[in-house]
């Protein structure tokens, strides 16, 4: 049966053929009738079946659209003319006989590896020699002699045959056929035997020579058959691919793939490519060692048995195949990219194949698993599944793990013990040892997480101390064990915050201790099992866990501001001398105190003690763990009869009227500084008793009460905590009977209700007056008013609240709470949070409402346009502010980005965030917020022409048209817009260009300053932002630093130099952008304004690469010279916070620096003058280096070309 397109019968009948049949054949028979065969437009005619075609047939081949038309002759006798007008004539067999003229027209071609020709003619630029396939020659048909000159247009009576007797010249070319030898062989002495026409012969001979032998490819070649070249003898063969390619015969359909298999040492180098396989194996005493240095491999690389396979750098588009034959191969992948990695079994660890310090990378993700490779099951990496490669790269840190069960690095396979991560915006870093992970989290300033992935054993104490750290230790279900002989391993720290969670087991003790500073740290335990003792002197919070040894909470009296809270957990032994501890839940076998007479004082709001005992739960008793001589007091129970802290809704009073579960007796109790608790029948009596105390004390309410006369909480500096304990205080007369507070500290907590007015005020308005403070933590309030005293509101619900203005030195803070009405009448208030239905002021302006916002906060409401609208009236008072409802309240929230109106003012925080920018002699390209810079400032881009149009003037620098200061020499310049500014492009003639420019290649200036508010944390101070901009030309080289000197003392202006011993001068150096060529330093200052407007004289500077200091101009900034409008701006996270150390006039609160070098990297344009000009010294140095590089390159080229050596 015939298949395909056959036109034999048509031609035999003499029918003309024309068209573009795709791939038709002529098979068998004689074609004698007159006809024309025309082949065109990409068609292929194959005459290969013992065909005779007489002179009455004419063949024309065209290729009008360059689509690859082909006339192929295999076994055929062609007696007619053949005209190749386009396309290609192919003949590859001696039985292809052309008995008439064959004409190859200009633009057509021929590929001849066989055939005999009566007459062969080429038109155009080609000659007969150009038609020969590599390693073929023409011979005279009559006597088989060589045609020595084929570079002619016409040959007659010739045959094309393969050259079988090569003789090579010194360039390894055959003097007969002109083809290049396939390979040369170089022995370990550098001797070059004769070139090889066959690569296979070179490889076979290499195995017979001792020592290291190099086989170097000279040309691409194809292995026609399918042999496996075996290197089983010899010492070492180096196969130098020399950039060449080895291909297999892709027309070979036998299914046998050719390749190179070694059982000795073989190294493949030379960055070549191949489509054959490479293999290495171990068999008996023969252990192969294959090293792939580089190259591209489109087939597979295989290793079997305990042979060695090393790949340093290669692209394997096939796969790496490993076979377990009496053991897996020893594999080292030091580099390279691989489409597939495959083994026959799942017991091979592909991570073990990585070289030292290496890891895997893949755009499709790193995943090892089972997949089908052809018809076999394979285990490894399958890049075909997601069209990716797996690459071996240098591996510096562990950035991902395979899973928590096997907890191995996804890139390198190392076993991960723990990870460290910055909580906000960070990624985890994984470590092979616990010590490395702990060191990493301790180095993170702020919140971080340390996570375990395996059990660990400590051989000594582990110190978590880090002053600025807030570490969460996630045990992740694992255990910490003691590996010391004396049981001395422990976790300790004397500073920083530590949170333990993750339901693990800790078999070492924990010490959270600092006897010198009780406030230096914090301990939080979320859950877990703790089998050794815990001692803490810090603020402590326990939310769950099992504690099988002693929990010792160290001493604190009523005046202490630490917080100790137990919310849940099972405790074998809790000893507390902490008067400020609250227990809200938990189960206790023993709960006791060494120093106090009361355990009920530890109860949290609405809680009670419950135990299966008769009589008093709390007694004095002795205990072998008591480190003191006196007896201890508390609950002495067992595991069968523990003490529980539960919700407590109803009193269970004894014959003395005292609640058995919560200790309540009468209306209220007072716990003194000495931690002695007394009970009172009236609330007023309790307040009187509390005021009589000399130190801190707590009033705790046990039932609802009504006050019948004014209750005054004023003390001479003492601190009273009013714990409402969920109850309500009413008044007989709301208008005239109220709660008064004029001095001392009053803290209200306990989530109760006060329906009486709370008036906290002082009529003393002198600057020295600081009589007291009101603190509200929670609760429900009808009316709270503060005037002339400090205040802090952390939460609660308020029908009315007012912060009035009677003292400039007060500090009034609102952190949270719900307010039906909040009136703010003082600019000293600071609002960090809260929800207000109505928020306003009767005495201040709308702008002042923005000024009282806490840093990083903004107002948000469900309204269109401006948040603060027209004035409104309530109870006869006219307010500026927000007049909302319960459905549409105003909220104070974190303010991450500005929402500016048409005037460039943020509607949420009032900040002016967009300033005007005018440019003369140039163009403003853009003004945009770039969040990638972590900045709230607009980034401006300006540009100027290198040569001023229509003149012989050239751009030199940008100048501030208002101040005359130099801004930058960058032609295209990017900078932060921090005030309204007018810039001018300055041009000069070529003869003056470098003189003017050289004076300005390194410049710094005070770009602006801005008053933030009077809400300084220190009385009598106002807060400013100071912006210092600098620009250094790339030709100037690197810099070592930049910063600013400043003082509030006018007489110290001349001392604004680095290293001065003048104590009135401060020096602030940029931290994160110390080497930036362009950028901005922002510092936050508090200036003393007690005696009038604050003034600051500032002088910027740059430290060049030679440690020379280049100073800017001293500039007066402050209240009297502030650029822009006084407004609130967002405070950024500082490079470093220096606290409040000060000479009494100026305080540096913090700083932030920005590096714009990369953005300005292409901002300096090259200047080419029409006439010669003296160059900048920096440009001259650059030219000198360029010339040196050129000389060195010429010298190296000379050495290489002449073979010279050192």
Give the secondary structure arrangement, pairings included:
Blueprint: E1 5-6, H1 8-12, E2 24-31, E3 35-39, E4 44-53, E5 57-61, E6 70-73, E7 76-78, E8 82-84, E9 88-91, E10 96-104, E11 109-112, E12 116-122, E13 136-140, E14 154-162, E15 183-186, H2 199-206, E16 212-217, E17 221-223, E18 228-231, E19 236-240, E20 245-248, E21 259-262, E22 265-269, E23 273-274, E24 277-283, E25 286-287, E26 289-292, E27 296-297, E28 301-304, E29 308-311, E30 315-323, E31 330-333, E32 337-343, E33 358-361, E34 369-373, E35 376-382, E36 390-394, E37 418-422, E38 429-431, H3 434-442, E39 446-452, E40 456-458, E41 462-463, E42 469-474, E43 479-482, E44 490-493, E45 496-501, E46 505-506, E47 509-512, E48 521-525, E49 529-530, E50 534-536, E51 539-542, E52 546-556, E53 564-566, E54 570-578, E55 581-583, E56 586-588, E57 590-593, E58 607-611, E59 619-621, E60 632-636, E61 643-647, E62 668-671, E63 677-680, H4 683-691, E64 697-701, E65 705-707, E66 711-712, E67 719-723, E68 728-731, E69 739-741, E70 744-749, E71 753-761, E72 772-776, E73 780-787, E74 790-793, E75 797-804, E76 812-814, ...
Parallel strand pairs: 1-2, 2-4, 3-5, 4-6, 4-7, 5-8, 6-9, 7-10, 8-10, 9-11, 10-12, 16-19, 17-20, 18-21, 19-22, 20-23, 21-24, 22-26, 23-27, 24-28, 26-29, 27-30, 28-30, 29-31, 30-32, 39-42, 40-43, 41-44, 42-45, 43-46, 44-47, 45-48, 46-49, 47-50, 48-51, 49-52, 50-52, 51-53, 52-54, 53-55, ...
Antiparallel strand pairs: 12-14, 13-14, 15-16, 24-25, 32-35, 32-36, 33-36, 34-35, 37-38, 37-39, 56-61, 57-60, 58-61, 59-60, 62-63, 62-64, 79-82, 79-83, 80-83, 81-82, 85-86, 86-89, 87-88, 87-90, 91-92, 92-95, 93-94, 93-96, 95-99, 96-97, 96-98
